[in-house]
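Subject: Re: docking follow-up (pyridoxal-5'-phosphate)

Dear J.,

Thanks for your patience while I sorted out the input files. As discussed at Tuesday's group meeting, I've set up the holo structure prediction with pyridoxal-5'-phosphate included as the bound ligand rather than trying to dock it afterwards. The sequence and the ligand SMILES I used are pasted below, so you can double-check that they match what you have on your end before we go further.
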Amino acid sequence: MPFTPTDYRPYDFANRRHIGPSPAEMADMFATLNVADLDALIDETVPKSIRQAEPLDFGKARSEREMLFQMRLTAAKNTVLRSLLGQGYHGTVTPPVIQRNILENPAWYTAYTPYQPEISQGRLEALLNYQTMISDLTGLEVAGASLLDEATACAEAMTMAQRVAKSKARAFFIDAACHPQNIAVMKTRAEPLGIEVIVGDPAGLEPEKVFGAIFQYPGTNGEIRDFTPEIAALHAANAIGIVAADPLMLTLLKEPGAMGADIAVGSTQRFGVPMAYGGPHAAYLACHDSHKRAMPGRLVGVSIDARGNKAYRLALQTREQHIRREKATSNVCTAQALLAVMASFYAVFHGPEGLKAIAQRIHRKTARLAAKLEAAGYLIEPEHYFDTITVEVGHLQKGIILAALKEGVNLRPVGKTKIGITLDEATRSPTIEAVWRAFGVIAEDRDFESDYHCLPLDMARESAYLTHPVFHMNRAETEMMRYMRKLADRDLALDRAMIPLGSCTMKLNAAAEMIPVSWREFSMMHPLCPPDQAEGYHELIDDLMAKLCAITGYDAMSMQPNSGAQGEYAGLMTIRAYHKANGEAERDICLIPMSAHGTNPASAQMAGMKVVVVKTAPNGDIDVADFRARAEAAGSKLAACMITYPSTHGVFEETVREVCEITHAHGGQVYIDGANLNALVGLVKLGEIGGDVSHLNLHKTFAIPHGGGGPGMGPIGVKAHLAPHLPPNPFKGEAGAVSSAPYGSASILPISWAYILMMGGSGLTQATRVAILNANYIAKRLEGAFEVLYKGPTGRVAHECIIDLRPFDDSAGVTVEDVAKRLMDAGFHAPTMSWPVAGTLMIEPTESETKAELDRFCDAMLAIREEIRAIEEGRMDRANNPLKNAPHTTEDLVGEWDRPYSREQGCFPPGSFRVDKYWPPVNRVDNVYGDRNLVCICPPLESYTEAEAAE
Ligand SMILES: *Cc1c(COP(=O)(O)O)cnc(C)c1O
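The structure tokens for the complex came back this morning:
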């Protein structure tokens, strides 16, 4: 077409960013699917009986620049002051090399949880560094790869203590010096499990009455105590001792392991992860080797690959709730991988000397601050401290806090007559001087030569830490940058290829959406700052909640849960509180279909419910007759049902309203798992089809990246009758709270808000429609080669589809794992494996993938089918073939070659690129070896050189 300068055509910027297939590509796809257009496909696919009446309308969609302008206005309503509020949150300095190369790098933040180890070696190494760092600092042998936040980690440690303690006591002791949010979340967790909580001074601890106890180190008001005697007394009574410790302080003072602690927990926020108005940040949990099998969350371990080379993987995966369902020990799925990676790099960046110097500097500043106040006549507590002091000020409390506020400093009121002050890495002399002025002291702060300190010297740390070479590398930024790049290059994330994981919704995380996360107005806010400093946050959160209510048809929201599973737990606890308020506390049965995600039954048992499993009909739907029978049998004990919509089988069940009605008829509440909302937004409202409560995975449907296994956000929406029972503010210290902070991982909420603003109602709806189109296109292209296990009555699937690989086990000895590993050779991350049906792959392309990428994937799958056929027909060996030997690495290009297929076929199957070939860094990882020889901290350097020498 000839181009003339005046030939103006309107150009739609917005939809070209997020929606993968171009209009021309879509036209081709309609032809393949034999439908007239998208309307026709959606009409065939989504049952009329559940469609929402009115289209979603959020006004005009914003362009990227309009959204960022709006975001600037909102951010400007947050006031960033110096917050010396402590209580588990501290200012920190994120090294720019980490901010740019990790936090703001899609190679790190768009990765998935490292379940496919061969294409996740980079983040597995970074997480192993994290585990090593935690193990060293706490003085305990084993540490996990992160938990959601400190309060959740405390609650997990409590239930873990109950599992491993020999004591049969029913009570748990909580040090009254624990942070209020830790106490709150432990109380919440204890109640449905029948654990009696005793909060008090450790001096009054009666060890024989408890199965365990937790102590805060330092205490919330700065007190530092050696818990060695208490823990010894607990051990004498067969009970477990837990210490919640600040990892930075552990560089100076006696570590929990040296006190005899069995478990240590805490937050690594101050290791370079901004406070972010409460989250995200990585919590840690470490324990003795003997208890490792009872640990919650993920654990990275060292194993070997098919060539005997060292390879990392997730160890003891059978502990995960996906597999253990109601027998799970925890529901933690999404955790805080990206933040754990950041914290580990902070330790790599600073090394042990650097961390120690930071801790010493913070302490010296605190001691200087205290000395001048003491000299002015104020009473300072405690006698020995690290970074937190409490000043007795009598009736002056309000006046001093106000005076500090005028100086731009937030101080923490403690009781009615005291003020708490916590210093951090970012505190500088002007802030210290401002605090003095607020107390009426005029002085200049100089880092004088004296080594004045107030640390308890009898508790000085004696053991070494961070001795591994990784914490002693050359720290020139060139080296740091290249180490980060090297690890990132080992991994396959969304910045390289489609990650078609069913149920996980790995869609575009647009750059424009990510930018505000680093803005100081969002990242530098302390969650306990006065509300008038956080007006921007509240405007954003309120508007996001209103829009999510409009999308789901619910009446109220809670932003507290910081993962999907945490949302399930919060939602079920809300149902529990509702029944209790109605005088029906005996309702404790929860009906859950066989096909539910493993977190569903795990959360139900944590909420004190009994799980009754409902059968699946041959077409994949819930067996309504079985459901009805079980609801009737439960009768007045029915608390809830927990269903997923569209079902995890990837179809829109027509019977969903009936299932909800049956539940309601027996007085139960309907929990709908909203993880599949990507098939619904703009078309169906969960609140209208019968749901009372749902969680939404903002890190699936609403564009928050997965971060290699977290962060996430799992807010819950509820109908009005449940609203009074939503979780309260955790800082009040009361039962009911589920996270460390009132809005969970607040600083990633701008991502979802930006996504909604830029899509608008019609853009969001279009995304849903194209997600359904893409899934149906894949199902169609694979037709004939693979069987799609479940389809709706018109032969269509929802936004994902399950293909059956079980027949090939018999016909060719090929398993679902072989296919997953072979896809790596083609440069793809495998779809979800063996869930919800063993021996299948669940494929979810999302709307963000172009037709070209879908075709590349389908070509790879069809080529794999031909390889299977070659085995079936005896043209290829059953044991020595490209599938069994997958993935192939650069090692397969050199050396001896004894295989009945070419190196070319092995390394460059259809779908793979030639120039831009992704090379998995290791061959297939040996799972059994890794679990038999469990190593969960960085192996000593000799083992590296050995492996190299062996080559
Ligand atoms: C992802 C998912 C969950 C759990 O969400 P997390 O954020 O990982 O805790 C629950 N149910 C379903 C169906 C899911 O796909």
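A couple of observations from a first look. The longest strand covers residues 210-217. The pocket of pyridoxal-5'-phosphate is lined by residues 333-334, 503, 563-565, 597, 599, 644, 648, 673, 675, 697, 712, 714 (CB under 6 Å).

Let me know if you'd like me to rerun anything.

Best regards,
T.
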